[in-house]
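Fold Annotation — chain and its backbone
Next Lines — sequence and tokenised fold

***
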Amino acid sequence: MTVSLSIDSITAHYGNTPVLQDLSLSIAAGELVSLLGSSGCGKTTTLRLVAGFLQPTSGTVRLGDRDLTKLPAHARNIGLVFQNYALFPHLTVLENVAFGLKQRGMAMPERSKKAAAMLERVGLSGLMDRLPSALSGGQKQRVALARALVIEPPLLMFDEPLSNLDAKLRIDMRVEIRQLQRANGTTSLYVTHDQEEAFSISDRVAIMNAGRIMQLDRPEVLYQKPANAFVARFVGFENLLSMRVVARNGASVATETAGGARIILSQDDLGPIPDEFVLACRAEGLAVRREGAGLPAVLGTRTYLGRAYQYQCATPAGDIVANGALSDPMAAGSEAVLVHLPEQCCVLASER
């Protein structure tokens, strides 16, 4: 049965240090939500609280109609996939996958059959008699995934499951995890520090900082419309320019940077522009041009990126990172203008 997960007003401490602060999160039945953030933001603590390895200071955890908050870990019936695989070294692949079924009292013939069928689903049917020491990293992770899925848990949780794999295998495994999760329809909570991994695998992503969820939304929304400066920086908006409006003419808005430079913006492109705001731009959202209307700049270090040249730029608004065309390289010390590209920029509330 597919069920929802509800985390309501959870607070948690390590000693006297707060780790989670009034955190709430709802995951719909069959949905995969990732917790994304840097080390120490609280994402793994959240997973451990849901799993029952830690107890919250306050708040509740519910899985469907069941209140899990006070239940011990072994009574929660949750599938877990860990970074270090957590396979039993003395058991064969088949025995590892069947272990959870054995703990639930299933007879050997039935559990062996069920485990073998799951191993076939993850492409390991020919390795059932091997010990974990004879497997590659990717094969071990498939065994761990099969072991978590075979018990048919109402909730499946992943704790940095791909961190130990090389780049190509990480891509292959995240596709495989997503396909299996969708096929099973299992409600899933996925913890990672890797933005690309989270965005590629998730229905929604919660970006965390200091024990709080800063924004929870679809990957496309997070990438294009961050809710605040923290999220904007996290998803790659390198340049945050404090601005104020000096004149309005319909959709055309004359603005001024903190250093006094004037830029014309359009509300047709960027949406509503308040009197004071932050213009967030990716490096590719500020095009380096030799002349024209834009933010004046003096170019510094030039870096070749393959798709463009990237420049460190000194401007009246401060130091900025901007990209220029490969067809027109410019030398350090050159004067230029930076032209904003609306599709790579967004308007945020003022930080003041």
